[in-house]
Amino acid sequence: xxxxxxxxxxxxxxxxxxxxxxxxxxxxxxxxxxxxxxVIAILSPSTRNYDAGQxxxxxxxxxxxKDYILVxxxxxxxxxxxxxxxxSWLQYDYKSIDDVFSxxxxxxxxxxxxxxxxxxx
Length: 121
Fold this sequence. Notes:
Blueprint: E1 2-5, E2 10-12, E3 16-18, E4 32-33, E5 38-43, H1 48-52, H2 54-59, E6 67-72, E7 78-83, E8 89-94, E9 100-103, E10 108-111, H3 112-115
Parallel strand pairs: 1-4, 5-6
Antiparallel strand pairs: 1-2, 3-5, 6-7, 7-8, 9-10
């Protein structure tokens, strides 16, 4: 599903998007929404800097977004960005295959061992 950010007119196709409740759709094709709760990006060498930098700045304009998670594809590394009540963001980094983290906004716990299962570096 395509994601649109009306405040900055940005359109994108996130790797994984989680919506709490019904997606707020922007068109009659029902393929563009504006209200994600969680966005997860799988980083490649060519997109890593853009996803972590400029794209994250654009995503911050989404009022419903609570979590932005970056999963590196070339090493064990997950960056979890969490929006605070005052709209500031906290960043947590996970670098060990034994690390576990929670996405409180959707009540999910993820294990890096599961995320990177069957991945060879």
